[in-house]
Amino acid sequence: MNFSKIKYFMVLLTAIACGRNQTEDPCGQQPNTENIALQLDFTSTASALKKISSKEEVALFLKNQPAFATLFLKQGQHPHDSILVNQLFDRSQHPAFQELIQESEKVFDQYDLKQEFEQAFKNIKYHYPEFKAPRIVTGVTGFDTNFQGFDDDLYVSDSLIIIGLDYFLGEGAKYRPNSMPQYILRRYSPEYIVPSVINQLADGFMRSNAKDRSMLADMIFYGKSYYFTKQILPCVADTVIIGYTEEEFNESKEHSKVIWASLVKNQMLYESGNELKKKFIGERPKTLEIGEKCPGRIGQWVGWEIVKKYMEENESADLKSLMANPNAENIFANSKYKG
Q1: Sheet with strand 42-44: strands edge to edge
Q2: What confidence tens digit (pLDDT) does each residue in 57-66 have?
Q3: Which of 38, 158, 231, 328 has CB atoms 3.0–4.6 Å from 217's, for a disulfide?
Q4: 160-164 and 135-139: which strand pairing?
Q5: Of the candidates 249, 156, 139, 251, which has an alpha carbon nearest to the alpha carbon of residue 196?
Q6: Are 37 and 131 in contact (CB under 8 A)?
Q7: 8 Å CB contact between 214 and 272
Q8: Position 23 pLDDT exceeds 70
Q9: Region label for 149, one of left (φ > 0), alpha (ψ between -120 and 50) or beta (otherwise)
C-alpha cells in the first residue's frame, strides 16, 4: 500500500478541530468514583538505594524489599546471597548509578504516579466492585544486562506491580537502555507507565477461547485490551494507549479501508501460523506486507477498531459483557466492521 503524505493536512485539521472544541471535555464520560474507597500500598525504593553506604545496609534493603529483590534482582538465583549483596553494593556506589537515581527522582517529581494509579484503580472498581488494588513498588534498576538481574522494566500481576522507573525517563534522559530499538524505546517515557500496566491488567478481566488460534482471535484479544485501557483511562490519548506516533495513528485511520482490504484479500483473518501472525500483530517498526508506511502491530490496531465498532453497534453491551465474551467471531460479526 502506498500511504499518501497527509501530514500537513492532518495537522491543519487538528488545529481547526482544537479551535472549535476548546470547551469540550477531552476525556469523554468519566465514571463517577467520588464514593469509591480505595487503599493503595505504594512503595518507592529509590531513596533507600541512594542512601546505601555499606553491605549490611544492602542486606537490610533486600530483606525489606523481598518482592523487588526476588523479581527484579533475581535473589535466590545466586549460589549465595552474598554475591547479590556484593554486586548491588558495588552498583549502588557507582557515580553513574547515583546520577541515575537522582534523574529518576527529578523526572518523577513531576508525575504523581500514585495519584494516577489510584484514579485508574477506582475506575476499575467502578466496573468491577470486587477489584482489589495490587501493591505497587517502584525502583531504579540500572538496566545493565551485564549486571545479572537488572533487565526488567515492568512486572504486573493481580496482586503486585513493580516498576523500573529508570526505563521510563524519556527522550531527554542521560542514561537510557541500549538494548531496545528506537521504535520501541520511544514508548519508554513517564506517560506510558500507567497505560502499560492497565493494558496488562486487562488480561485478568478477559475471557477468550484458547482453542481459537486464528489471527482474528488475536486481533480481538488486543482490541479488547486497548478498549479496556481506554475505558479505565479516558483522558489518555489513543496514541499513547497503543504506542503509535500521531502520524502512524492518523495515517492508519485515513487508510483503514485499504488496510482492511489487504487483510481480507490475502485471507489473513483465519490464519493460525505463528510466524505469519507475527508479521501483523507482533512488534515490528513497519508492516511492510501492507505498505512501507504502515506501522507495526497493525493487526492490534485493527482489532481495537473492530471492538470499538462492536460497542457502537451493540448499545446493550458494556465493558464487563465485552470482556466476558470469549467468542471473537461473534464480536467480529456483530461489529459489522468493514474498515
Answers
A1: 42-44, 135-139, 160-164, 154-156
A2: 999 999 999 9
A3: 328
A4: parallel
A5: 156
A6: no
A7: yes
A8: no
A9: left
Residue 178: its pLDDT value, please? Answer: 81
* 255, 1 contact by CB (below 8 A): yes
CB 28 within 8 A of CB 234: yes
Contact between residue 43 and residue 138 where contact means Cβ atoms under 8 Å apart: yes
Counting Cα atoms < 13 Å in the Cβ hemisphere of 154 gives: 16
Query: What is the arithmetic mean of pLDDT over 174-190?
Result: 91
Q: What are residue 137's DSSP bridge partners?
A: 43, 162
pLDDT at 99 over 70: yes
Using CA atoms of 300, 305, 307, 311 in order, give the dihedral in degrees to the nearest 10: 160
**Count of Cβ atoms closer than 10 Å to residue 326 Cβ:** 17
Number of C-beta neighbours around residue 179 at 10 A: 10
Q: Do 285 and 278 touch, CB atoms closer than 8 A?
A: no
Report which DSSP code applies to 74.
-
Question: How far is Cα 130 from Cα 126, in angstroms, rounded to an integer?
Answer: 9
Residue 217: CB partners within 8 Å, gap ≥ 6? 208, 209, 328
Helices (H), 138-245: 182-185, 193-201, 215-232, 238-242
| Mean pLDDT confidence for 75-82 | 83
**Distances, alpha carbon 212 to alpha carbons 11, 181, 209, 257, 272, in Å:** 41, 32, 6, 25, 9
Distance CA 324, CA 330 (A): 12
Q: Which amino acid is at 251?
A: E
Does position 324 have pLDDT exceeding 80, yes or no?
A: yes
Specify the 3-state DSSP secondary structure of 81. Answer: helix
Evaluate whether 131 touches 319 at the Cβ level (below 8 Å). no
Task: For residue 5, name the pLDDT band (cuts at 50, 70, 90).
Answer: very low
